[in-house]
Prior knowledge:
By secondary structure, the chain is an all-beta fold. The protein is 2% helix and 57% strand. It has a 17-stranded antiparallel sheet that branches. β16 (252-254) and β17 form a beta hairpin. The N and C termini lie close together (7 Å). It holds the Pfam family Phenol_MetA_deg. It comes from Algibacter mikhailovii. Keywords: Signal.
Amino acid sequence: MFKTRHFLVFTIGLLLISIVAHSQGDGPRSYLLGPKGVIGANPKYLNLNQNLVPAGNIYLTDSDINVNVFPTTLFYNFGLGERFAQVQFMFNPANASGTIVTDQDETFTGLNNSGFSDGFMAFKVGLIGTPALSIKEFAQHTPAYSMFGYLRVWYSGSYDASKLLNLGTNRFTIEFGTPMSFPLSKNSKRPIWIESYPYIQLYTKNTDPSIIVQGNEAIQYPLFGIENHLTHNLTKKFWAGIDLRYAIGGESEIDGQAQDNKINVLGGGLSAGYQILPFLGATSSYGIVLAGDNGLDGNMFRLGLVFVYAKTEKN
């Protein structure tokens, strides 16, 4: 006979951590298999200093923009047949300030805006090595290679075409990717993981561009990227790792005229995480642009918490 009980449980990396600025990546321990029947929340704080717009996928060469964002991702893990699956929703309060220099060499200082940056809805499903496991089964599962199919649809945050600095993009971004994870250690208490996420982002038109654009219609070509992480548990509760990201593409056009702002950037950084309580974990990351064409530059500091809840049955 089974007794049903509720309890809180946390496993580092059991959810797909959201991104707030498209260029910053999901972060380490984001693409690992997790147990089904788990719900949770992942609030974060990011500080970005960059010459990209707050959404992180269009840059303005000589601009200097500071962005503070507070994204919160809600998620639920479940089984789709015998495969792991996950749904997510992220909303993204933010504020931004700084200086923008246009392509016409006009400089606007003291800019400030608050509201919401782009958020997303997402669906992830297992393709290879991703069984739908209960908490008990997951605890006994031997780490193995896994691959997921991932669809993420970004919706626009706050937008006003009369403003020079916007947090939202006034369009949709559709992202497809195949997150993968490779275990380098079978020791469940000291795991070593390589994670890799190749993806493509497609953008709808912005039919009401900001006045800074000085046009009637803005489009952006697809952006291709790959995000990679190597992490290792130094103790049972503490892990650390290195991050590497590369993105290319994403040039924009205004009324059919190319803007010569193709993104070609390599970024890297360091990350760490700690299990504070059985139901609560914390992560932190610092990242910089290592190399980029056309003067693209930026740095990022990120703090995150993960709260989880699961309902299980005990014999």
